[in-house]
Amino acid sequence: MSSSRPLYVTQPALPPLREFMPYLEQIWDARMLTNAGPFHARFEAALGEYLGVEHLALFANGTLALITALQALRITGEVITTPYSFVATAHSLLWNGIKPVFVDVDPVTLNLDPARIEAAITPQTTAILAVHVYGHPCDLDAIERIADTYNLKVIYDAAHAFGARVGGRSLVDHGDLSVLSFHATKVFNTFEGGAIICPDARTKQRIDRLKNFGFVDEVTVVAPGINGKMNEFCAALGLLQLEHVDAALARRAELARIYRAAIDEIPGLRCHPDPVPEGANHAYFPIMVESAYPIDRDALYQRFKARDIHARRYFYPLISAFPMYRGLPSAQPDLLPNAVRAAEQVLCLPLYPDLEAEDQARVIAVLQEAGDGDA
After folding, report:
1. 255 contacts 350 by C-beta, under 8 angstroms
2. How many Cα neighbours within 13 Å face the side chain of 359?
3. How far apart, in whole angstroms, are the C-alpha atoms of residue 265 and residue 287?
4. Where are the catalytic residues (predicted)?
5. Residue-wise DSSP of 355-370
6. Parallel, antiparallel or unpaired: strands 269-271 and 285-289
């Protein structure tokens, strides 16, 4: 019975196993498991075509891609970033010996507030590391103007942004570099994986070397690179997933519309964002539990958990609250009121292509019952 099935915020979308088996057999027969094999080349080309970009570099995961993107642009000093994200965003800075400078988010979009970015710039600032939170676009024009004015690099953590578009153009095709994640919980997954969207062939060449220990050829190493290569199994899965991703995005949009129609009738709950940006990929379904709702966010979270529905307080705690960051001057909560408020109110509901109607109804029923004050 579906009532006994645990529900999670997201579950990996996978193609039928029968479709994957021929790919596995080809890998087995070729005996080439990694190091830019044939599936790697095919997937890289197909992915670029799907996203509408000419140059991209595949990675073993999104975190290695973030670390390498910063290294590729030779970023040093201070980088302005958001406290409202997954920890990998800021961790990539520490791994490169860079000081994160947190600024508050816009209260409507929950993306970096451009006005706060400009106010935080110092002579040590070299870049902006912005996140398209939940796959919704940052203020691209404002960030570009700031970067041009102060000669800063812009890297977008686009981990949530696969398939999202703005003005008819892929959201990942912005900034000096954009970084994707293909982790199993993402809209598009390769089990584990990631990519850097590159502006030109020369940048891609540098990134390809950095992700392979800095090798140029068998005897030449030109940089202290890392092992960030995607293997053939993940590349093959990605190639196959591209055949299904449009259907998955359409199903996500349908489920999101059902949620919104129900939640709009429940006082004290607010869907984020409202309205939904054109070209959204519905990577997550966050709601804000406000003071008019009979119970607070954490009580609602526990009520879901008791029903075997595992919603996520995503993002809570803030990155700036973790021990390695909270001593930074920019991490003080009074400087980040919008991010703090969002972290206290947000709850992401289950949303994935295989979510069945009766299971989505279970989620909505919990929200309605709590909203009516039922125990």
Report:
1. no
2. 21
3. 13
4. 186 (proton acceptor)
5. --HHHHHHHHHHHHHH
6. antiparallel
Task: Tokens 């059902």: give the residue.
Answer: 258
User: Strands, E, within the chain: which ranges?
Assistant: 7-8, 55-59, 78-81, 99-102, 125-131, 153-157, 165-166, 169-170, 177-181, 194-198, 215-217, 220-221, 269-271, 285-289, 309-310, 346-349
Computed over every residue of the chain, the mean pLDDT equals 96
Q: Which of 152, 223, 156, 237 is nearest to 190 (CA)?
A: 237
Identity (one letter) of the amino acid at 199?
A: P
CA distances from residue 301 to 34, 350, 357 in whole angstroms, order as listed: 42, 12, 21
Residues catalogued as catalytic? 186
Other CB atoms within 10 A of residue 274 CB: 11
Banded model confidence at residue 1, pLDDT cuts 50, 70, 90: very low
Q: pLDDT above 90 covers what percent of the chain?
A: 95
Sign of torsion over alpha carbons 156, 161, 167, 173:
positive
Decide if pLDDT at 303 tops 90. yes
210-241 pLDDT, tens per residue?
999 999 999 999 999 999 999 999 999 999 99
- 44-76 b/e with 16+ CB inside 10 Å = b? beebbeebebebbbbbbbbbbbbbbbbbbbebe
Tell me the pLDDT band of 73, cut-offs 50, 70 and 90.
Answer: very high
List all residues 6 or more positions away from 31 whose beta carbon is below 8 Å from its beta carbon: none
Q: Is 30 helix (H, G, I), strand (E, B) or coil?
A: helix
Q: What is the CATH number of domain 245-371?
A: 3.90.1150.10
Strand-pair partners of 313:
none
Q: Cα(269)–Cα(255) distance, rounded to whole angstroms?
A: 17
CA 125/CA 160 separation, integer angstroms: 26
* Topology of the domain comprising 17-241: Aspartate Aminotransferase; domain 2 (3.40.640)
Tokens 């519309």 belong to 257
C-beta of residue 272 within 8 angstroms of C-beta of residue 367: no
